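Subject: two folds for Thursday's group meeting

Dear M.,

Sorry for the delay on this. The cluster queue was jammed most of the week, so I only got both jobs back this morning. I'm pasting them in the order they finished. Each block is the input sequence followed by the predicted structure tokens. Could you check whether the formatting survives your parser before we put anything on slides? The first protein is the one we discussed after the seminar.
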Amino acid sequence: MRKFIFKSFIFVFIVFFSHLFVESTRLSIPVFEGKQEPKLKNHADIFLFGSSVEEYADSKDKDKRSISKMINSLSNKYRVESISGGAYHMDMFLELSKYIVKKLSHPKLIMVPINMRTFSPEWDKRPEYQFEKEKKILNGFTIPEFIEYAYRKQIPSLFSKFHPITQEDFENTFVFNGNSQVGKVKDFLIERKNITDLNKYIKDGFVFHYMYSLEKEHRKLKSMIELTRILSASHIKVLFYITPVDYSKGEFYFPGQFIKRLKNNVDLINLLLINEGIQVFDLSLSLNSNFFSYEARPNEHLNEKGRMYVAKKLNENILKLFPLE
């Protein structure tokens, strides 16, 4: 009996740590290409944080380069290294900033995009956009956290840290047009193939993504301020820029309202950052619909003309901040 118990214990021990080993091979952040201790090439002068907006290219684009590659082509005085991932937002940029300050050679400048859609319930509360695993990697797993990560799928009821917002919570989040509640997230989660009224689908998309009234207590604004203070304390310059929004189509659906709402939200961001001694480069109203690339629901993906416009404007601001020799 004792021998049987011992063998059983050994078997469980092997299975347990074999699973931990397998899971450890999956611990990676897309931007770091699977490396837990990233060593960026050529000691970049500038880091450009980003989401899919940084690298997205339209199928019709002849020039499919990312914004960062376009910037590098405009000047040989400095090198820009992109640190981006699909749906990355201010909370992830904060964790990346902490990692850079602690682990990497400090760049001269970090450019941080402010995507207005990230503050919306469509983005902010989506479970898969919380990036809890990536945040844990950047901060370093403790042994209990690592075990939790490895076995969260097998025993989900015991391990909830990696899913701080459930799908149910997300779907029941209220959606607002200004201060007016217009439904819940689940009312707006309609697949393109199931729509019967394309015009309503697009209009609802603008409400879902942009027509909220931003409050200074929003958690992503708090991450933005914390990021600013962390980088400033390490003497790393930061350039915030607000990504372009398809304001012309938004104004078509909400004449006299869309631009006003967008400006009000941008003004709050400006005020918060000015209080920190930081100027914001605002591109939110810089491009009309001809520079965007999406089929129906509005987003910030740009075509080659739009990406080059942003690259040129960022390059101009880089040279204003410091003439690199």
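Second protein, same layout:
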Amino acid sequence: MHAGGSHRKPSAVGRWLKRIAWTIVGIAVALAIAGAIYQAVATRQDAQRFPQRGKSVDIGGFSLNLDCAGTGSPTVILESGLGAPAAGWALVQPDVAKFTRVCSYDRAGYGWSDPSPLPHTSLAIAKELHALLLNAGIAPPYILVGHSFGGFNVRVYAGQYPDEVAGVVLVDSSHEDQKARMPAKLREWSEATQVRRLEPFMPLLIRLGVVRLLLRHQFDSIQIPQPMKDELRYLSLQSQFVHAVVAESVAFDESAQQARAAGTLGDKPLIVLTAGRSLNLPDMPAAEMQAFRTIWVNELQPSLARLSTRGQRIMVEQSDHLIPFEQPQAIVSAIRLVMGASTAPAATPRPKAAAKPAPATQKKAS
């Protein structure tokens, strides 16, 4: 026996615990390798299945993806909501292309567009869109269609380049006062989504196939064709897409103020489409959601229609916020109305001393 007992053999329990630890490490490594293979194979298959829609256009150091169809003027420009690539207009764009030229595009970092070195504010987005249309040779006038957050972007574009804009369609558009009017729990949810919390880890989680596995049912609740669901899922599994969505979300308040500063649309034809149904959000108290819904429908959306002396609000009763997916024909019809109004002369304005904000007219669309 050695003095001091400094060289005792590991106990049986110690050896057993060490063996379990190494087994867990081995399983974790095996799962990581399997996940990486799963992600690589599935991504390659998706890339073959979903080739680029449109073409890449250099706007000075990086490229944006532009997809145009149809002929005619004015050209309709489709501006997506937060987290929606240009492919999300697939149910709207073909029908608009039957009567005029229509273009959708991927904002910086979305879809097949490169990331942008600039902040992802509505002002930066509007300037990038202007450069894209200029470099692609898509001449004005334009009818701008903005869904959700895209409403900020088209309003800022109209403020920056008013002579290029013939009319506007706002599709359940974001409003600069919406956060201030939200219930506290809903505001907290909107400012701290899972994507924002997980952003630092998203590249690794995507590479290991974890995100693909978690999002395999992401669009199942939306009544759109399965190939469209698969394409949107594929595009949302890109690291640069996640970073772009988070950057736009972080800059949301600044974009809201830029939309406010853009001012009114004068007498340009404007249609505001408002969803007739509320989105079901997780863990949101029904009473608070209903209270905000009332503010959204009766105050915020009508105030958007008053941005133009020829503004009109139309309720889309059979849709929630995702009108481009659920009621695309409502958007197509609104574009037709704005296009017709853009070629008609505006009514003679009243004397300035008697001028008041024009009340928003309201119709219903199914």
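Two things I noticed about the second structure. Residues 346-364 have pLDDT under 50 and may be disordered. The radius of gyration is 25 Å.

Cheers,
T.
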